[in-house]
Inverse folding.
């Protein structure tokens, strides 16, 4: 009960902050994303270090936090490095590893873990900004609605998985990675996601964003987001199990670390950006 009380109290504090930053957009949103990306990247590096890999902490965390800022700068019309320049990130990390680690410091593992950490955290969280200022968005209400759709679907996806797994869960989904998850929970998660997508497409998107989803779009977005959320959760569970830890950190009382809170969103945000861009239609 004490842990549950902590979780509820933290949620009461954090949820309004997240919603306010998403609504405000611009500097508020990019600051929240940059801070979350930097912390999540640091936590990912800690998981890697628990298995004997020493990522390039300073440059990795800095670059992860910088990715949402770069996306913001591009939206404002400032010059940002093109893809050809971004590709130089690999030589940059190899140069740092060369002088900081040398051959005795396992440079291949260090650079590999650093690259994955940057893209996995900062890269994926940047899609929240891309959704907030999607081509379909006409105002702050519409932008906030597009960001919060995958967020709400992800949360209720977890609820559906918990309830269905508790009621009918017998066969384990992937016991070597997450012993508590069942096939019944996975099916319940998909059903909850599709229902949530339908409710948002019917009652939230039209008045808030003047957008809608046809039935095929509701099914595609609901199923796609559910699968993305479940795989994202399993992926982080895989990292934590390999590292031999329960949580990525203890920064958030009752919730573990930032990475524990955004693991599913790291998958649903980019998947949501692609699917919504493919199936959304204007609704006057």
């Amino acid at each position: 009960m004490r842990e549950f009380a902590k979780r509820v109290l933290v949620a009461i504090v954090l949820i309004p902050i997240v919603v306010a930053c998403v609504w405000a957009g611009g500097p508020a949103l990019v600051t929240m994303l940059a801070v979350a990306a930097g912390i999540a990247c640091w936590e990912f590096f800690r998981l890697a270090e628990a298995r004997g890999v020493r990522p390039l902490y300073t440059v990795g965390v800095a670059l992860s936090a910088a990715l949402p800022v770069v996306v913001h700068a591009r939206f404002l019309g400032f010059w940002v490095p093109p893809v050809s320049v971004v590709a130089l990130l690999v030589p940059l990390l190899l140069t740092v590893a060369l002088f900081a680690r040398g051959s005795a410091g396992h440079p291949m593992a260090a650079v590999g873990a650093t690259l994955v950490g940057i893209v996995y955290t900062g890269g994926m969280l940047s899609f929240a900004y891309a959704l907030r200022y999607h081509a379909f968005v006409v105002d702050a209400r519409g932008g906030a609605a597009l960001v919060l759709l995958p967020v709400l679907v992800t949360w209720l996806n977890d609820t559906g998985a918990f309830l269905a797994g508790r009621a009918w869960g017998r066969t384990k989904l992937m016991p070597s990675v997450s012993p508590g998850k069942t096939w019944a929970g996975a099916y319940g998660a998909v059903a909850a996601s599709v229902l949530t997508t339908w409710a948002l497409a019917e009652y939230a998107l039209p008045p808030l964003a003047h957008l809608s989803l046809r039935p095929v779009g509701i099914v595609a977005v609901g199923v796609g987001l559910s699968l993305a959320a479940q795989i994202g959760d399993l992926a982080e569970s895989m990292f934590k199990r390999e590292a031999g830890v329960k949580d990525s950190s203890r920064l958030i009382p009752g919730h573990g670390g930032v990475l524990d809170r955004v693991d599913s969103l790291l998958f649903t945000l980019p998947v949501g950006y692609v699917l919504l861009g493919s199936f959304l239609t204007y609704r006057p």
Notes: The chain has a mean pLDDT of 92. The chain has one domain: 2-282.
